[in-house]
Amino acid sequence: MFTALLFLFAAAPPDVVVVPEGSFSRGSERAPDETPVRTIGVSRFAMDRTEVSVEAFEEFIRRGWSDQTVWSKDGRAWRDGHPGGSGRDMRAAGRRGDHPVVAVSWFEADAFCRWRGGHLPTETEWERAACFGSEGPYPWGSKIRSGVRWSLRSGEGPMMSVETAVVAEDVAPNKLGLRHMVGNVWEWTADWYHREGYASGGDQDPNGPRSGHWKTLRGGSFVNLPSYATCTHREPAAPETPRLTAGFRCAYSLD
What residues in the chain have per-residue pLDDT under 50? Predict the structure, then answer.
């Protein structure tokens, strides 16, 4: 046990949750791009308990932004064309440092996770973690809960402010203790999006398509209806485009 704990904390920051090895039913019949429903095996991994905060990301800006080794080739090209990214004011969007960072591109999220010794979760890892121990469609079960940071009204007009919750404060964490797996902010994943992406790949630790035009966001945000904030909803997004509704969290390989 002691050796295992030492290995875990050497491989990942301390505030992580270990997701056990096992299999789960990935996908749903609710939307064509969530099919087919398949039993998928997943190796043990860890995931950040919370979404990456404004404060944590600003530390990366100070200490890791210029580290060439944490950026992919395309990421370095994006970074060189966007010195400092969208800027601290945009990333904070008028909120305290303990709120989730927003307005970060996929390339920045990918570099941050590499800098932390991890990776952006694959869609399979994200979905396995989100509804662990629950039949869904939400991390806690089937019923809509009050207090979740999402919207219960549609057609509200333009977004006037970024209404997130503090990353550690969640009225409905899942059975692993993960906060805000749905609602609050969309979360970048590692995979390229394809409408039929769930129809391909193996049955053990599958990755998404090898290339594409969009990366995949998961979980919905503070402006989305609950139908977007499920464990299985998949959303395409251009990797170079920061959004005031999108943030991320990191995963860590343990085996």
Answer: 1-11
